[in-house]
Structures are given as structure tokens and as C-alpha cells.
Write a structure and sequence with these properties.
about 170 residues, about 20% strand
Amino acid sequence: ISTQQLVAAMNAEDARVAMEERLGADCGIRLGGGRWIEENAQDMKLIEKKVIAENALGVMSEVHDRAGMLQRAPYLGDHVIGGSFLAGEGFANPLLVTPAHVNAAKSLGARFFTDAAVAAISREGSGFVIETSRGRFRAGQVIAAAGAWTAPVGRMVGLKLPVTGGVAQVSVTD
């Protein structure tokens, strides 16, 4: 984990706490702590290094052996050997937070086009032309909110963005 990622995580924690207030909506934010679970000694060594780096920057995460992790999460399987815990971590419900951001952006004049796969983005004058599966759009600004696909979208306008996709854990129930 890089210093930049740690600083971003620290800033993100402050942002999460104020997000519902700024958006004027319930985003289902729960700050019950975050766990990294490990199943082998090699990965535990990486967790130990991660926690040392986090602590040096003021992010007070903790390393726990199996017994320590079971105290926080007694439902863990037999294969878990340890991990880390950070009290300030949490989550927002994507079924609530996404529409809240969309509504806030719309109130500021943003327009959204769904089901419009982007094939190309090019500069035209002081703006952009976006070629999509739903036609051509012009915009003064473009926000790439493509998640794991942000780097390929950035390349369309000559940006090399250090964004990669990876799933630590995702669960959504309704």
C-alpha cells in the first residue's frame, strides 16, 4: 500500500462521515470497522507491513492473530490465520449512496446517460465529444466515473491513470 493510498484513506474517512449531511440523504453509512482476513503466512507478513505503514501515518489499524480476529468476528472459518482491523472503516450502501450522488449532481446541472457504452472521447475546442452506443454527445467537462474501467477511459484522452480493478469483498443484498 502506498503513502498516497494511505493519505487518501485518511481523507476518505473524514469525507464518509460528512457525506450524508452534504448530500441531504441517508446513504446507509456504517462505521463498524474494517477487517482484512488472511489465510497464509506470506499474506500475514504483508498485513503486518501494511499496518506498520498505516500506523506511521496516523491510521491506527491493528494486527491480530487468529484468536484476536475470532474475538472480533467469531464466524470466521477454520482457514483464517489472522488479519488486521481498523475501527474507523465502514461502508455505505451502494443502493442508497449512488442515487444520492446522482440527485445531488443533477441539482447542480449534471446530466446522466445510462446504458451508453463509451467508444471514444476526443477534444473539440474547449470541450469534448463523446461517442457512445447511444450517439454522440458534447460536453464542456467529462467525469470518468467508470470504477475499474477508469484507466481505459482515461487513455481515450491521453491520460495514463494508475487505476486497476480488484475486489476485496463485495456483498449487496436487498
